[in-house]
Amino acid sequence: xxxxxxxxxxxxxxxxxxxxxxxxxxxxxxxxxxxxxxxxxxxxxxxxxxxxxxxxxxxxxxxxxxxxxxxxxxxxxxxxxxxxxxxxxxxxxxxxxxxxxxxxxxxxxxxxxxxxxxxxxxxxxxxxxxxxxxxxxxxxxxxxxxxxxxxxxxxxxxxxxxxxxxxxxxxxxxxxxxxxxxxxxxxxxxxxxxxxxxxxxx
Length: 202
Ligand SMILES: CC(C)(COP(=O)(O)OP(=O)(O)OC[C@H]1O[C@@H](n2cnc3c(N)ncnc32)[C@H](O)[C@@H]1O)[C@@H](O)C(=O)NCCC(=O)NCCS
Ligand SMILES: Nc1ncnc2c1ncn2[C@@H]1O[C@H](COP(=O)(O)OP(=O)(O)OP(=O)(O)O)[C@@H](O)[C@H]1O
Prior knowledge:
Layout: E1 3-9, H1 15-24, E2 28-31, H2 32-39, H3 45-54, H4 67-74, H5 78-105, E3 110-114, E4 129-134, H6 137-148, H7 152-160, H8 165-169, E5 174-177, H9 182-195
Parallel strand pairs: 1-3, 1-4, 2-3, 4-5
The structure holds dephospho coenzyme A and adenosine-5'-triphosphate.
């Protein structure tokens, strides 16, 4: 039996950074952002629904979705965001459940599901233990602006479109405070995995 760990946090709080550490440890990671990208490729049902609701203006010349353009729309309009979520999330949920079942068949000690909107989209039923990657809001804003080249306003609209990170901390089984160095975060992760007996005792 594999322990299914949900890894979540806020935008740019460090989920990918921590998920890379899991991969280095040989633990399988299933990434909801990747599944969400696959779910909206041309030919998929969610793709057709997006085009019929948002129009062909949100398409690139080659017919794929112009992600920055769609992001600009949905992070500034709650109604449109909920509409996109209602189109994409059922497909993501299904894909994640399939991937989880496959990983469990392999009988690994643990499987990680990296899901940014674990709480917002009520996906907690897919996992057994939850790790929240936390950063303070100032650091989050700075890292997001730097990584994506966003203005303060653009970054803030994305942060505000998610449940406050502080509220997620209260619902976690374990928290990694990623406001410090990457090495400090790695140590916190190892401590959690040792406590949960995922890693062999050294
Ligand atoms: C709006 C889109 C096209 C922007 O694409 P882009 O390539 O710029 O960003 P990417 O997909 O890499 O997401 C980056 C981060 O934004 C945040 N985010 C994405 N979608 C949402 C959303 N609907 N609500 C709140 N935060 C979101 C997450 O923290 C995510 O990790 C894309 O994010 C999307 O299709 N979102 C809807 C699907 C979704 O909710 N994905 C999140 C995981 S299920
Ligand atoms: N401890 C740290 N110190 C300095 N920079 C960091 C640290 N952790 C992550 N970063 C940087 O902050 C940015 C956000 O981290 P990361 O991409 O891991 O976040 P994420 O939660 O996966 O984001 P998203 O929700 O947008 O997918 C990246 O540019 C990353 O290199």
